[in-house]
Amino acid sequence: MSFALPKIRGYFLGVLRPLEVGFSIIFFSFISFTQAQKLDPAIKTSQAVMDGFMNKRFGMFIHFGPISLRGTEISWSRNKDVAAEEYDNLYKEFNPVLFNADAWAETAKEAGMKYLTITAKHHDGFCLWPSSVSGYNIMNSPFKRDIVGELGQACRRQGIAFCIYFTVLDWHDPDYPIHNPYDSTQNVQGDMKRFVATMKNELKEIITRYKPYMLWFDGNWEKPWTTEYAIDVYQYIKSLDKDVIINNRLGKGDQNSLSMESVGDYLTPEQRIGTLNMKDPWESCITICNQWAWKPNDSLKSLRECIQTLVKTAAGNGNLLFNVGPMMDGRMEARQVARLKEMGNWLSNYGNSIYGTKGGPYTPNQIYASTRKGNLIYLHVFQKTGAVLELPSFAGIKITKAYFMNGKELSFTQDSGKDIRINLPVVLPDMVSSVIVLELDKSAELIPVMNNQN
Ligand code: JFZ
Predict the structure, then answer these.
(1) Residue 68 C-alpha to ligand 1 middle, in angstroms?
(2) Cα-based torsion angle of the residue sequence 273, 274, 276, 279 in order, rounded to the nearest 10 degrees
(3) Which candidate, 432, 163, 430, places its Cα nearest to that of 323?
(4) Is it the case that residue 68 has pLDDT exceeding 80?
(5) SS3 150
(6) Measured between alpha carbons, how far is 343 from 333 in angstroms, rounded to an integer?
(7) How far is the CA of 11 from the centre of ligand 1 (A)?
C-alpha cells in the first residue's frame, strides 16, 4: 500500500489548504484504503472448518510432473539443470503408466495421514488435470489421464481429505511477466490482468470439478503478484465454495506469520518445524528426502527423524504436510512407502496423542515435547538423560496419575514450588518416542505455555 499512499496524500494536500483538514482526510483515506486492502472477515474460512483441519495433524504432499523424467527439482531446475526448451517439452514423453491413484491414497492412509495435497500446477505451468483453459496439460502428454481427478476419487474412497496445490506464478505462461527467475533480462511486459483471469478460470475448473478441501497456494513472492490480486482471488474462491481452506501463500508477505498483507487462513513454515503457536493455525511442509520432486538416491530421513518431526509439529500446535515425490513411472519409491508405513505403525499405537490434540503446554525441546487433550497431557520422551525426568510444574492443577501410553504406571512427585519428577524405567518402551500420559484433575488446556529449555 506504500506505493499508492503518496498519491492520495499529494492529491488531498494540494486541494485542501487547512492542515488539520488535510491530515484528517489523509487519516480517513488511509483507513478506507487499508480497508479496501483487507478481506471482509465475513467471508473468511470459519473457525469450525479450521478446527477440523487442524485436528487432522498429518497430511501427504505430492510434487509430481514431467520433470520426474529427469530427476531434478520441479520448476526450479528449469533454466538451470535442464534448458527451458528441453524442460518445456518433457510433457511429450511424460507417461507414468504405473500411476495408481488408489495405491497413493492407500499409502497415505497407511501412514496415518488424514489429507493429501497434489501439485496440480507448479511454477513450470504444467497442469496435471485436463484443463480447457490451458493446453499445457496432461491430455497432451502420452498419458492422457486425469491424475488430479483419479487421485481425488481415490482419496474420497479412503476417507482422506483431498487438497490441491496451485501456484500463482507461472514461468511458462506468456501472459506472466517472468519467464526465468535466474535471468531478469528475459522478463517481458506480460499481461497480469489476463493472467489472473486465466488463473480464475483454472481455479473454477479445479473447485467445481474436484471440490478440494483445501487449496495450497504458492509462488506469491514475485513482483507481478499483488495483495489486490490475492484478495480478488480469495473472494472469487469463496464465491464458489465458502468452506475451502486457503493457505497464507495466496497473499504477499511472510509465510511464517499472519500479517496485514497476508490473505489466507494459516501459516506455512517450509522445511522446518513451526514454532509453538496457540493462536494462529499453521502447517509445516517438510520433505521425506531432500528434493520436492523425485530424485534418484536422494537421502531419506530416518524413522526417528520422521516421527520426531511429526511429534514436535503437533506439540507446537501445528500440522505436518510431509512430502513425497513419485517416480517417472508413477509409483512412489518402495523405501519411502516403507518409511511411511513405519510412521503409520507408530501412529496406530500412539495416534491418540497426536490427532485432535492441542500443542503445549511445554515447548518442544531435544528431550521431550507435549500435546494435550481434555484432562490429559501426552508427554513425548525422545531420550533418557537420567533415572528421573524433571519438568516445570504448573500451579493449581494436580497430576492424579502417570503411565506409559498402552503401558505401565509410573511413580512421580509434584510438590508445590518444585519441578515435577517422573521416575523412568531403565529402558524406555519405544526407541523413537515414548509417550507418557499425565492425568490431571482439571483441563490441560488451562495451563499456560511454558518456555522450558533443556
Ligand atoms: C516453494 C516452491 O517453490 C517449492 O518448489 C515447493 O513447492 C515448496 C513447497 O514451496 O518453496 C519455495 C518458496 C520460496 C522460495 C523458494 C522455494 N524462494 O523465495 O526462493
Answers:
(1) 17
(2) -150
(3) 163
(4) yes
(5) helix
(6) 16
(7) 40
Q: Is the peptide bond before 361 cis (omega within 30 degrees of 0)?
A: yes
Residue 7, pLDDT above cutoff 50: no
**Confidence check: pLDDT of 32 > 90:** no
Distance 332 CA to ligand 1 centre (A): 22
Residue pLDDT, tens place only, 211-260: 999 999 999 999 999 999 999 999 999 999 999 999 999 999 888 877 76
Phi, psi of 423 (to 5 degrees): -80, 125
Ligand 1: residue of 67, 124, 292 to mutate (most ligand atoms within 8 A of CB) is 292
Banded model confidence at residue 188, pLDDT cuts 50, 70, 90: confident
Q: Which atom of ligand 1 is nearest to the CA of 122?
A: 7
Asked if residues 246 and 239 have their Cβ atoms less than 8 Å apart, the reply is: no
What single string gives the DSSP state of each residue in 273-336?
PPPP-SSS-BEEEEESSS-SS--TTPPPPPHHHHHHHHHHHHHTT-EEEEEE---TTSPPPHHH
C-alpha of residue 295 to centroid of ligand 1, in Å: 17
Are 167 and 123 a contacting pair, CB within 8 Å? yes
Q: How remote is the CA of residue 219 from the centroid of ligand 1, in Å? A: 7
Lookup result for grid cell 512430502: 323
pLDDT at 18 over 50: no
Rounded Cα distance between 151 and 128, Å, is 11
Q: What is the dihedral of CA 269, 273, 274, 277, to 10 degrees?
A: 150
Q: What is the mean pLDDT of the chain?
A: 92
**pLDDT computed for residue 138 by the predictor:** 98
The amino acid at residue 84 is: A
Give nearest CA residue, ligand 1 atom 19.
221
Q: Could you count the other beta carbons within 10 Å of the beta carbon of residue 58?
A: 23
Tell me the residue type at 358: K
d(CA 155, CA 450): 38
Q: How far is the centre of ligand 1, averaged over its atoms, from the C-alpha of 311 (Å)? A: 24
How many other C-beta atoms are found inside a 10 Å radius of the C-beta of residue 416? Answer: 7
> Which atom of ligand 1 lies at the shortest distance from residue 119's CA?
7
Query: What distance in Å separates the CA atoms of residue 280 and residue 285, rounded to the nearest whole number?
Result: 16
User: Atom 20 in ligand 1: which residue has the minimum CA distance?
Assistant: 221
Classified as helix, coil or strand, 258 is coil
Pocket of ligand 1 (CB under 6 A): 74-76, 218, 221, 270, 285, 292
From CA 146, how far away is CA 127, in angstroms rounded?
10
Nearest CA to ligand 1 atom 1: 218
Looking at residue 454, its pLDDT comes to 62
Burial (Cβ within 10 Å: 0-12, 13-18, ≥19) of residue 64: buried
